[in-house]
Write a structure and sequence with these properties.
The complex is a heterodimer. Helices cover 33% and strands 15% of the residues of chain A. Chain A is built from nine helices and seven strands. Chain B contains four helices and no strands.
Chain lengths: 246, 141
């Protein structure tokens, strides 16, 4: 198989020695069918074992290997080296603090996911003996697209609102919350309302649509958020008579 | 046995803005442009309130306000207000199409008055601004 020498510029940050992140160059002999993740693994295995990056499944399912490649957030296991010309620049995901090299701190992201209560909420739980909550294929279709998220956080790295307002709940979490609001088995719309309606909720999104462009699973979080704005507004209107304005 | 001390968090480098933010990439430029519509629409609202105030104070005050608005700087600003408002309307319509209200799963469709209430003030603002520019341009008395 044909080999091609490719120059990589990788952003390094070693907290014990670097005050700020710095680029380091590597030259790697890449095979025709390599993805950027293969090249990073080759660097770690054969050139510089101190390089840190996250990866797991190597097939676009786990969502661990998201990074910026030439400035665009991508899953590096799905970014073929042959599709890039010249030097390939690899950086950690933007809008996240950098823990080390290409590894970012996802704590805030996970907290935001949890904040939208991404589980089925029932007013009264059925007894186990009564069996499962049934759902038709049509009912499944209504939210299936939004349930395909793999939490790779590429949408957070692409979002200009998060660059301005780091507290914004963000595309993946809002799409996930909306997915449960659309689920015929769920009755938690009112419980999620407070988070959706907050200052950092759905209305903070001004629809740049970049989240949907970079989503590797075509979840279209931008659509989920715009739909959630409307349903949130309806929920607000429903609760209006019960509100106290004192 | 005492509880183990909480592990000290590793020092992290601050989050970096996306590549091309805010002006180097067209979607981010759109975001900034959309955000800036609020400034111009706010100025437009102040202008309309001033106009209403002048109208309430008789023909002299109204004519003085019109003369004030006809100065090149205010005229240019008025055109910018209209341009930014139209851009906002365009984006609003685009988002509306994206929402696809008829396709939002099991949730109820919004009653018709709601979208009308949402669009009416925006439409009214555009119409008022067009009327004002027509008066300043001499197309209306």
């Amino acid at each position: 198989m044909q080999l091609r020498k490719v120059k990589f510029e990788v952003l390094r940050f070693r907290p014990e020695q670097d005050q700020v992140p710095v680029f380091q160059s590597y030259e790697v002999e890449c095979m025709e069918d390599w993805v950027v993740l293969d090249a990073l693994n080759a660097i770690k295995d054969d050139v510089d074992p101190t390089l840190s990056h996250r990866w797991s499944c190597r097939m676009g399912v786990c969502g661990s290997c998201g990074m910026l490649v030439n400035g665009r957030p991508v899953l590096t296991c799905a970014a073929f080296v042959r599709n890039y010309s010249g030097t390939i620049r690899v950086e950690p995901l933007s809008n996240f603090p950098i823990v080390r090299d290409l590894v970012v701190d996802l704590d805030g992201f996970v907290d935001k996911l949890k904040s939208v209560k991404p589980w089925i909420i029932r007013k009264i739980e059925k007894d186990l003996a009564e069996g499962e909550y049934r759902q038709s294929p049509e009912q499944l279709d209504e939210f299936k697209q939004f349930s395909m998220c793999i939490n790779c956080a590429l949408c957070y790295a692409a979002c200009p609102v998060l660059a301005n307002e780091p507290e914004f709940v963000g595309p993946a979490a809002l799409a996930l919350g909306h997915r449960y609001n659309l689920d015929s088995r769920d009755e938690g719309n009112a419980e999620r309302f407070e988070r959706f309606d907050s200052h950092d909720g759905v209305y903070a999104c001004s629809y740049a649509n970049e989240c949907s462009q970079v989503c590797p699973k075509h979840v279209d979080p931008a659509m989920a958020i715009q739909q959630a704005k409307l349903t949130d507004f309806l929920q607000w209107a429903k609760l209006l008579p019960k509100r106290s304005f004192t | 046995m005492s509880a183990p001390a909480a592990a000290e968090k590793t020092r992290t480098a601050p989050a970096r803005a996306p590549a091309g933010f805010p002006f180097g990439f067209y979607r981010y430029r759109n975001y900034v442009l959309f955000a800036s519509t609020s400034v111009f629409m706010g100025l437009g609202c102040i202008g309309l309130l001033e106009g209403l105030f002048a109208l309430g104070h008789g023909p002299d005050a109204w004519n003085a306000w019109l003369a004030h608005m006809a100065r090149p700087f205010d005229l240019a600003l008025s055109l910018l207000v209209l341009a930014f408002t139209l851009y906002f309307v365009f984006r609003f319509g685009w988002v509306g199409r994206k929402i696809g209200a008829g396709r939002i799963g099991p949730l109820p469709r919004p009653p018709l008055p709601l979208p009308v209430l949402g669009v009416a003030p925006l439409g009214g603002f555009v119409v008022l601004w067009l009327v004002l520019l027509a008066i300043l341009g001499g197309l209306l008395p």
